Amino acid sequence: MMLSTARRRFPATLLRYAPPRPPLASRRYATNDSKPPAPLPDDVRPTPYLNDSFASHTMFTVDFFRRFLKYTALGIITVTVTSWTAFEGAHLWVENVALASETDADAKQWEWDLEADRWSGSPNGGTDPGLGFSGRHAVRSAWMALYWGTGSTTSIIGSKSFTGRNGEGATLAPIQAALEYAQEFLHIALDGAEQANAKGRLHPMTITALLARRADVVSRMGTRNALDEARSEYERVWSNISGRGVQAARVALKIGDLNRRLGDTEDALFWWARSIQLATGKTDATPPNAPPVIPGVAPASPLAQRTLVSALVSLSAFYATTGQLRQAQAAEETSLTLLRSIPSPQSFDAASPGQALHSLFILHRSSIISIHLAEVLYALRTRPSTSIDWLTRAAESSERVALSLSGLPPIHPDAPGSKIPHPPASETPLTEQYAKSKSMNGPAKNLLRDARRTAAEAWNLIGVLTEGSKSADAPAKALECYERALGWAGVGRDRAGGIGQPGEGTLESDWQVFWANYVRARDAVRKQEQK
């Protein structure tokens, strides 16, 4: 055989021989096969079968807890950092915004910045750096409790933070939780201030300012032991300020009011006399038993004028409620003459906010004294028309104050033709110029509340005297007066059952009196209409 000379080509990869696989066929094993299986050779051992599911489940569990602990730790750290940031951010806001010093020139001119609450001895505002970290936080926490509240808890039963001067324990009486927390924080701050002051790191007036703040908070609790505690702390404030200047006159006024509430009438008269004397610019040389003397000329300082007027209101109420009617009449008539001599702007709209608020304050306090004088004259058996005249002046003055502060027109649009138009809703807020003022917001808010209460009281008394005149149209006129009183004391008419709800700042006892008088006059008018 001849071999080919052509070059053979071999594949790059040699092919392997693979025997053909038999076709898959289902095999069936008879269950009745009694032939035993063939044994394995001696040198062959079966390989044990290991199920790795146990290992995988263990690793999954370990990984789960590892990730759980990891994200839990991250969550705790995140919540802690966020909470701490919010906590310190709130304190920084209170420090640099809420407790900042007044910058409004108009408020300073009318000395509203001097009347504002002080939380440190420094005139720059904020808290005293000498108090340290915990002391400064305690002061700011007291401010937050007072102005931001304490959450869902609104009142607590009793307070264990103080006892009476005679050692008696605190009585169980509901007080506001915000006041209790605020005074407790201030107590902590005072403890730190005493230690810092011993080391010479504190402003000289910081302790005095903190004492005044805590005394003000405690006095608002209203219990006898709280009033006694407040009096003690105000007496410490008095000793620290050496009894000179307008601030000393304000402290003397507060001590006199607390003594009156505690029943110490002689001490109350003594401190009121001191306040009046200091407010007029005289030195403190008041004899212990000397009665208060009303000056003939008002002081020039706006703050001194407001302090003097407040002392005269306290003195008038004392004489009128203790049966000293002749002394009350003389004091009230002299006080009203003095108040009329204080200059006031021709128009409150044209005056600056500070001047307008000062004049509105004087006007409202004169309306309170007018109500006292009307009651005293009625008790002295003078003609009811005289008392009605004084009450009408008081009602109109109080309405003017409330309408000016709320920015509402004197004639309500719902009743433009009525001689006694419906008043604005009792929840109407302050105007923007007072709501945004740092120093005037608090005094304006309190003045608006007091003006509404005074207007309601004056109209209610006018209704009572008119109803007692027994004239033919007396029930109808009295009903208008009672409606006016309810309008100032109650909530807005657009609410459900509006006329049957007392408004903010109105005592429940006063509201019940107003409502009973209104119902009685309404029923009398209906009977007349049916005849």
Question: How is this fold's topology laid out?
Answer:
Layout: H1 53-98, H2 105-109, H3 112-115, H4 132-148, E1 155-157, E2 174-176, H5 177-198, H6 206-219, H7 224-241, H8 245-262, H9 265-279, H10 302-321, H11 325-340, H12 353-379, H13 384-406, H14 432-435, H15 441-467, H16 474-489, H17 508-530
Antiparallel strand pairs: 1-2
Helix pairs in contact: 4-5, 5-6, 6-7, 7-8, 8-9, 8-10, 9-10, 10-11, 10-12, 11-12, 12-13, 12-15, 13-15, 15-16, 15-17, 16-17
Q: Your description of this structure?
A:
The protein is mainly alpha-helical and 531 residues long. The chain has 17 helices and two strands. A two-stranded antiparallel sheet has the order 1-2. The longest helix is centred in the N-terminal third of the chain and has 46 residues, at 53-98. It is elongated. The termini are far apart. Residues 163-167 and 494-498 have low confidence and may be disordered.
Q: What is the radius of gyration? A: 41 Å
Estimated helix fraction: 55-70%
The largest sheet, given as strand count, sense and whether it forms a barrel, is: 2 strands, antiparallel
Give the oligomeric state of the chains in this entry, treating copies of one chain as homo and distinct chains as hetero.
single chain
Residue stretches low in confidence (pLDDT < 50, at least 5 long) are 163-167, 494-498
- Shape, per Cα inertia axes: elongated
- Listing every helix as H and every strand as E from the N terminus to the C terminus, the arrangement reads HHHHEEHHHHHHHHHHHHH
Classify the secondary structure makeup into a structural class: mainly alpha
Average pLDDT score: 84
- Give me the side-by-side strand order of the main sheet: 1-2
Count of strand segments? 2
The amount of beta strand, in percent, is: under 5%
* Terminal residue distance: 156 Å
